[in-house]
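Chapter summary example.
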Amino acid sequence: MTAAKIIIREIKGYHDFVKFLIFLVVLAAIASTVRFIFGLGVTTNLNDTFPWGLWISFDVVTAVPLAAGAFTLGAIVHCFHIKKLEPLVRPAIVTGFLGYSLVCVGLLLDLGQPQRGWHTMVYWNPHSPMFEVSMCIAAYTTVLFLEFLSPVCEKFGYHVPLRLLRTIEMPLVVAAASISTLHQSSLGTFFLIAVDKLHSLWYTPLLPLLFWISAMCAGISIIIVEATMSHKWMGQPDESELLETLAKILPYVLTLYLTVRLFSLFAMTEGPLFDRPGLIALFAVEILAGVVLPLVMLMNYSVREHNRLRSTAAWLVIFGVVVNRFNVSMFGMMEKGTMYYPSFIESVVTIGIIAAHVLFFVLIAKYFPIFEHHPETVDYSLPDTFHKTGKAAAPNVAATAAVQTKLTGEA
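The structure predicted for these 411 residues follows.
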């Protein structure tokens, strides 16, 4: 049987929702091809007034904090030594790796001359926030790729690379936290030069700090939602106890964000604040629904221990971060009386990128051991052969095989 027939037979066995995701990804690939053939001017509604549209506001400015779970959880587990959260690290790394990979796709689509994208690596401009973000995203994607290689090596039985990756695990965690901190905050630095363009409700010298703190809120919330949905829809282990721990941490981060946000708004902002009703409404939705409401909910013990309520609070935080990023990068930049609407191609590509993230996560969870990682069984000694040869690794192999069999049966 040829490889094509094997792949087709495998796809036929997928759930209808997975097939629908594949359809959306293919549709987005076709739309992306049209964009590269005919250019930005024909396929998008971008112009001199709105040079940044949906692809930057969502696929980059919003997607980056939504992929912050890896560096947030890595710092919590390894820097604060909350080791019981270790089982959540691998899914967070996969989410981060997929998120940043798709951010790179979004950036490539938005470049007027994508064939010159490599110039950033050669012609350095260290005074530009865009240069820092591009370099940090490239470096962080590389770090996440190296961290993602561990389950790949386990899947194919590559023993020596696996031990080497585990040996450098801590340096990778430190590098990930440092690099991610730099570019999460630098995304906020972008908008500091828009003194007369960004509305006073969002323009503040503390914008880089606010972007960084809100990214941590989004990262923790994404992990809660991801683990809950993986248990409900993919039959993965119930990590409710671990998610309760994250739900205890999240209110502190939300409180810090709200404190800095209100201080920057009333003590450091110049210019009119409440002069445009539409922006006031967006600001109220962002703060009340995305920060205050989930903060109040998560301060209640009964909410933290209830799966649905805990997930609802996490979804509200994610919603608040998304609204904040759109307010800063799009709505708050619009002059009164002007409006930007994404084109059909822009919308299809963005929907396809979201579908690709979900699709690839489901497929990686199906074929690779990302939900069973037990650090207490890790052997850090270096074997003298490339593949697994001894019985020492049998417990991990058996656990991996059991979960893979379960996932394959469910597909």
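To summarize the output: The chain has one domain: 13-410.
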